[in-house]
Amino acid sequence: VMVTGPESLVSQVARVAVTVKLLDAKSTISQSFAPTPIGTDGNEVKGVTVVPQMVLVELPIEQQLSYKTVAVTPRIVGSVALGYQLVGVMVEPTAVTVVGDPNALRDLNFVSTQPVNVNGAVADLTVNTDLDLPPSVSVVRQQGIVVRAYVSAAEGSQTMRIAPVIVGLPSDLSATLQPGTVQVTVTGPMPILGTLKAKDVRVEIDGSKLEPGTHLVTPTVTIPEVLQLVSVDPEKISVTVK
User: Which of 51, 127, 178, 235 has the largest CB neighbor count within 10 A?
Assistant: First the structure.
């Protein structure tokens, strides 16, 4: 700026200043202020003219730190064992408060955990882990992160051809069965079905009360307890007793 006026007054001007009040300011200031001539004693010098009468002051103001509460997302890697499935994942706590650069937090809506490996799992897992935080971001309060992965055997079905057997038939009688085999369909955990053999499934006909002749009999099917019987085809077997 240019200061004009009586030489005795102009010579007293040591500097020209503007006063910008920053109290409670939260955003960049861009405003015109009237400059004030200041003497060597620190007081305003009156009786002089300052040109221009207004000056533009631009003062960038940025927030140093920002706080935000975001969700915690468990990061699961790997695959559970064959025949099993991941049925659910839980994390505690479900949300945390983070602090950091406002620009970094602006688009941050969740934070992930460190990778939790479930490879080959055949049962539920409980893992203590940490958060995978972006640069310039930290949690307000340090706390343990627990991830629980729930694993169960996958369900499936299997059909087998089984030869029925007749039990309890008196020794002086004989019987023929038609058909000679039936289709038995069961459901249950895949690991059990994978090891299921024909000898584990029994189809029986009670011959203790059968008299000579031809009868249509509903067989009794016995399977391992963890499995469920879906169907037997055919449902009835023709038994000829002699």
Answer: 127
Rounded Cα distance between 193 and 159, Å, is: 10
pLDDT for residue 238 is more than 90: yes
Q: Which residue has the tokens 């009040």?
A: 21
Q: Within 10 Å of residue 198's Cβ, how many Cβ atoms? A: 11
Pairing between strand 165-167 and 202-206?
parallel
What pTM was estimated for this model as a whole?
0.56
CB 103 within 8 A of CB 125: no
Higher pLDDT, 51 or 26: 51
Which residues are 195's β-sheet partners?
none
State how far the Cα of 232 lies from the Cα of 20, in Å rounded to an integer: 91
Percent of all residues in the chain with a pLDDT value above 70, rounded to a whole number: 100
pLDDT-derived band at 89 (thresholds 50, 70, 90) equals very high
Going by their DSSP bridges, the two strands 110-113 and 84-92 should be labelled as: unpaired
List CB contacts of 8: < 8 A, sequence separation 6 or more: none
Query: 129 falls in which pLDDT band (50, 70, 90)?
Result: very high
Half-sphere exposure of 61 (CA within 13 A, CB side): 14
DSSP string, 138-169: EESS---EEEEEEEEEPEEEEEEEE--EEES-
List, in order, residues 6 or more apart from 22 with CB less than 8 Å away.
29, 59, 61
Contact 89, 113 (CB under 8 A): no
**What distance in Å separates the CA atoms of residue 116 and residue 126, rounded to the nearest whole number?**
10
